[in-house]
Amino acid sequence: MSPRRTRARRLARAARWPLIAASVLGASACAVFTPLPEPIGLEDRLSALPTRGLPLERPVTISWDAHQIPFVEAETDDDAAFVLGLVHAHLRLGQLETARRLSQGRVAEMAGPIPVVLDLDHALRTFGFGRTAPAVLAAMPDRSRRWLERFTDGINHYLTAVKTLPHDFAVLGLERTPWTPEEVLTIGRLAGADVTWLAWVRLLGLRDRPDFPDVLRRALHDGALAPSSAEVAADDATANPGLERALGMLAALLESRARGSNSLALAGTRTASGAPMIASDPHLGVSQPNLWLIAGVKSPGLHVVGLMPVGLPLFALGRTPDIAWGGTNMRAASSDLVDVSGLPDSVFIRETHDLGVRFWFDTTRESRLSPHGPVLSDAPLLPFQDGEHVALRWVGHTPTDEITALLDAARARTFREFRAALEPFGVSAQSLVYADRHGTIGLAAAARLPRRDPDAADRLIHDPATVERWWADMATAADLPVIENPPQGFVASANNPPGPSLIPLGWFFSAPDRVDRLSSLVRAASEPWTVDALARMQTDTYSPSAVALRDHLAARLGARLAGDVTWDTVAAWDGRYDADSRGALAYQALYVPLATALWRDRGWPDHEWQGGGGAWRVLAVLQDLDDGSLEHAVRAALSQAAEPLATHRTWGDIHQMAVTMPLANIPLVGGRYRFDRYPVGGGQETLMKTAHAETLAPHTVRYGAQARHISDLSDPDENHFVLLGGQDGWINSTTHLDQIGPWRAGTLVRVPLTPEAVAANAAVVQRLTPAER
């Protein structure tokens, strides 16, 4: 459907919106004004967990620490998986239920008849995140399928047994509905969304521009700036508001699920303990509850502590007695857009989507399935042109098996076994950083990718024959880059290419700031690395690109600008985006109007300089200006910088972290779900990533570092984690937001692996007993 027709339909709906809103608010008054839960302590909160008469083979022990981090000890793998499902439901039942509906395109069932939400549901149904779930389940090895089924059984047992449901159920109108393994897999597919789609959302709407070839060329150039991890290891050098809102919702959804991360493995030659160490911090959406759970399990087939994605029965990063691993989104191109306009109608399958709408009449939408995948141009959110029929070819629509891959990776004892375990992994593509107790460190790529031509990115939409050729033979983990024990004694990854490849891996990698900063800090260290030192690294706020831009200006104009108060502040700035930094605020006050003017004068899209890597783009433009033009542009920007600097004192005055739930968007009562707001350091591409809108007005972080992990392989109990938020999704629980303090202070929570240390660390121990037979 064309943007013009989409906009016309949205305007027609807008005329009805006041009547719809009045009906929704009236019908939902009882729900939205549901009182918040009373404060509840750890023991009372854990009393809600069913512990007797469970469908278990043998008794199971859960040891909970003071942060409500569980460690499950089970005599069978079936029982371990069941109790992990029980734990996920206990801690995050409301979040699980909203994720289930989101992944299935059922948001209007919770939100009501909001036009843009109906469009979002239509788009999500068209994408079809659950489309391949039955095939994935059927192809899984018996052991993995059983693990998934028992995990689902655990969720369902809690859902039916718990007496008091989470607050979210009443507010969003959720009901107790049994889960299926296919629904768990569908959440996994949503988590595996292709980051390339973010670039497409921006670029597709720009194709009417006469300079679009240059826009695409610049985007591809920017994505190629980041060095590969192999290079790092080897280098010894130091218009329409309605449509925009709809696209923004889709982009925000993708950003929250699969955006960034840092991960670093150090050889024992660089550590105080003499054993390898690993440090990772995933970058995702920052709303509450966190998208991760910290958990541990010991059963005959699995012994691990780590971060579990909420609703999935796997450990995305963690530590076993033998190995530790982390990773970053590779930003690989796991998708292609296919022009299916020339295909006959007979090859398309028409799909009718029944959309449930809370407080209103249900409705239907339609889309088509082509031989190359769902026809995205049938959905209203994406800006395709009139007459276009474009399908999505996505690895996530093939039966790849991430659950088996990551379960087997957690059972590996060597790097070879770890790499072999990743063979069935498909989406989203990951660069997995590895360390083991025997001294090996490395990086392995986990993905399934088509074997494209080197110039594949020169077009956004491809003909079916070309795509069919690319996808006829897929590359797997065994074909992709690998690094093992590099002589420099470290491996770093930060959404940059993992290494040289015979096939294109992707087009839109992160800027080089974070991977270069990791490398420079490791090389410059004068003392061996410890847990505390790695924790300080994870909260580093230095911006290499901002300093490079500032230094370029200083070298060319410093003498002429001296005496300007704003410039003098920028010139003296240490390059750190600390919350209390006056220099960071001054730099931003100069940078925003300067970049805005440069892009406005050239008629380029604003998004090119906004977000990660923007400073490198601006610097490239400045290098092409003569000194007179440069001085004129900088002085104009400095004149605009005076006002924000007079209004605010520090970076933290305008750059803040909001501790909120998605429910904060509800009219009238949303303030109840805004728990805190505080100044925070970091920026677009600092190691402590706190991504934000490029503005001089007070703003909040959109996504960024929201969990951290450090392990020292010299001791199985030296594992440290922290979440931005807390373990418990139950509002007003003592462990709902209790890790905010440690996260802000840059400290972590020790999470042991051995049963003896777990028992010594436990605050509450529960014994779960089987039902009598």
UniProtKB/TrEMBL annotation:
Please indicate which superkingdom the organism of origin belongs to.
Answer: Bacteria
List the active site.
Answer: S261
Question: EC number(s) per UniProt?
Answer: 3.5.1.11
Q: Provide the top EC class.
A: hydrolase
> What keywords are annotated for this sequence in UniProt?
Calcium, Hydrolase, Metal-binding, Signal, Zymogen
Positions binding Ca(2+) in this chain are: D336
Cofactor(s) listed: Ca(2+)
- Identify the Pfam families for this entry: Penicil_amidase
Hydrolase is among the record's keywords: yes
Q: Biological process GO terms, please?
A: antibiotic biosynthetic process
Q: Which GO terms describe its molecular function?
A: metal ion binding; penicillin amidase activity
Q: Give the note describing cofactor binding and stoichiometry.
A: Binds 1 Ca(2+) ion per dimer.
Write out the similarity annotation: Belongs to the peptidase S45 family.
Under what name is this protein listed? Answer: Penicillin amidase
Which species is the source of this protein? Roseospira visakhapatnamensis
